[in-house]
Design a protein that fits this description.
One of its GO terms (biological process) is phosphorelay signal transduction system. It is a single chain. This protein is α/β, with parallel strands linked by helices and 520 residues long. The protein has three domains: 7-137, Response regulator (Rossmann fold); 143-276, Rossmann fold (3-Layer(aba) Sandwich), CATH 3.40.50.2300; 286-519, Phosphatase 2c, domain 1 (4-Layer Sandwich). It has helices at 15-27, 38-47, 64-72, 91-100, 112-138, 175-184, 197-200, 203-209, 226-233, 247-277, 333-354, 366-379, 458-461, 473-485, 492-502, and strands at residues 7-11, 31-35, 52-56, 82-86, 104-107, 147-151, 169-172, 187-193, 216-220, 239-242, 286-291, 294-301, 310-318, 321-329, 388-396, 401-407, 413-416, 421-424, 443-446, 452-456, 512-519. The strands form four sheets. A six-stranded antiparallel sheet has the order 11-12-21-20-17-18. The longest helix has 31 residues, at 247-277. The relative contact order is 0.08.
Length: 520
């Protein structure tokens, strides 16, 4: 399938700036849509799909911060890159922009080559993310949980006996519910009643949002309505289901497609099971070690006990220093598993090479290590096409300090025992392999008795609360662990037990890793 040309929404009240950016984007083969204020921008997102949004910070009618906050409330745009333009160079302003949901910023006046470089980097990142998400959706091994979305009008008069379909069917009657459901559920197919005008009017947006990897079927009322059929055929429709047919035949068509999906996933599952059993990559489910008055723990669980995207390794520098790496190859199941050994090979060789070299200090500068490994990965044409997050944690009992650097990982949590305060540390960085010259900061944290540092992968925050049906998320995760983490000395199993019971988690659908370092 040919990739579509990136479509970018540009928001600015200055006509000259709009035209200049439009000219620049056209020059690199990108399509652009222009808006002169936030309200106009939001209106355009309702019926069109955009791969990236560029907005001036200071807009009429609605500020840029208000715009990005509202954009992030729309399910289909939660992960779309959002870049601010502004001549404001104050650090506090940019921090506020990032906290409100922006991904990056470009200061005015900007150099065209810098602008193009940043846009291309974010387009590459979002394209890879979509490929990973859609590929994992298509090949999700948990095949007994596939769903069909059935889009209907609110006064639906055409009824199907859904109880005879082999997989769960979710009836959807609005675009907001549709995109929200697509984000959190494993969807195999979308069926749209041709009288559901709300869905028919955004067919192009639906197909581009799903990257055309989720088949779309249309329930047609009149098989002789050639005008409607011709319009639908221009929007990547996979098949038509005719209402005039006997209901049993319609149900049979749907079930046949479901059975094909089951057969495909069963094939992948069996192949992965065989490969995983032969894999040399193994990680202990639990790790617990003391370095003088520091205690280090890890809980690691691969999905369905198969080797997966999460990985960790520990390295001894001497009897007072230790290095821990925690990573997550984005994507699920066999695709992520396949690349884990390659990443570990890069990490091992780089650490072993620099471990005892005087010009390099892992303990003080883990960010430098990320820069080196990032350059190696970027040069590898195959591995650079897959996202990975990586955190490097250096523990030094001699100085009672921990240093940490991050490449795209979730922000770590630090508990200050003296102040009885739990907060996320402001340490972030670009995913590995996206930008060749990415710079990674190193954060050095002093540790006192009772202090704790906790890292976790998205397998925890993307778990679902069985009672509410919602994903856990960072805020709920932090609230749930506050009581446990404040205790003098804890076990990671205490935190996981707390999460499972208080948040009603019956199972995890992804790899998960918890890392804890505490000073006793």
């Amino acid at each position: 399938m040919a990739k579509h040309s990136p479509h970018i929404l540009v928001v600015d009240s200055n006509t000259a700036t709009l035209k200049y950016i439009e000219f620049t984007l056209t020059g690199i083969g990108y399509k652009s849509t222009l808006a002169r204020n936030g309200l106009e921008a939001i209106e355009k997102t309702k019926n069109q799909h955009f791969d990236l949004i560029i907005s001036d910070l200071y807009l009429p009618l609605m500020s840029g911060n208000d715009l990005v906050r509202q954009i992030r409330q729309t399910p289909e745009y939660k992960l779309t890159p959002f870049i601010f333009l502004s001549d404001n160079k104050e650090e506090e302003t940019w921090i506020q922009n990032l906290n409100d949901g922006a991904d990056d910023f470009i200061t005015k006046p900007f150099k065209q080559e810098v602008f193009i470089s940043k846009i291309k980097a974010h387009i590459k990142k979002t394209r890879l993310r979509k490929e990973i998400i859609d590929y994992s959706r298509k090949n999700n091994l948990n095949f007994d949980k596939g769903n069909i979305i059935y889009c209907t009008p609110k006064d639906n008069k055409f009824k199907l006996s859904l109880q005879y379909i082999k997989t769960p069917v979710k009836i959807i009657q609005s675009d907001k519910d549709l995109f929200s459901y697509l984000k959190k559920e494993n969807v195999w197919r979308i069926i749209i009643d041709d009288n559901a005008t709300w869905a028919i009017s955004i067919l192009d947006k639906i197909s581009k949002t799903t990257e055309q990897l989720i088949p779309i079927d249309i329930l047609i009322s009149d098989s002789k309505d050639t005008d409607k059929i011709n319009y639908l055929l221009t929007n990547h429709i996979d098949s038509f289901l005719y209402k005039q047919l006997d209901e049993r035949l319609i149900i049979h068509q749907i079930n046949s497609s479901v059975q094909q999906e089951l057969n495909l996933k069963n094939k992948y599952f069996n192949a992965l099971n065989t490969a995983a059993k032969q894999s040399p990559v193994r990680f202990e489910n639990q790790y617990n070690e003391d370095i003088q008055d520091f205690n280090i723990q890890v809980i690691h669980q691969a999905y369905n006990k198969l080797a997966g995207g999460d990985f960790y390794e520990t390295y001894d520098v001497d009897n007072q220093k230790k290095i821990i790496v925690i990573g997550d190859v984005m994507g699920k199941k066999w695709n992520a598993w396949f690349f884990v050994p390659a990443y570990i090979a890069y990490i091992r060789s780089t650490i072993n090479f620099f471990m005892n070299r005087e010009e390099f200090d892992f303990i003080k500068s883990p960010g430098k290590f990320l820069e080196i490994i990032n350059q190696s990965i970027f040069k590898d044409l195959k591995i650079s096409e897959v996202f990975t997050t990586l955190s490097i944690i250096s523990v030094c009992s001699q100085t009672s300090q921990i240093s940490i650097a991050s490449a795209g990982a979730l922000q770590p949590v630090f508990y200050n025992a003296k102040e009885n305060k739990l907060a996320q540390l402001n340490i972030v960085g670009t995913l590995l392999g996206v930008i060749p010259d990415a710079h990674y900061l190193s954060l050095i944290q002093d540790f006192n008795q009772g202090d704790k540092l906790l890292l976790y992968t998205d397998g925890y925050i993307e778990a679902v609360n069985d009672r509410t049906g919602n994903m856990i998320g960072d805020d709920v995760f932090l609230d749930s662990i506050r009581h446990v983490i404040s205790k003098n000395s804890i076990l990671l199993t205490d935190i996981e037990t707390q999460l499972i019971h208080t948040l009603n988690i019956s199972k995890f659908d992804d790899d998960r890793t918890l890392f804890l370092v505490q000073k006793n």
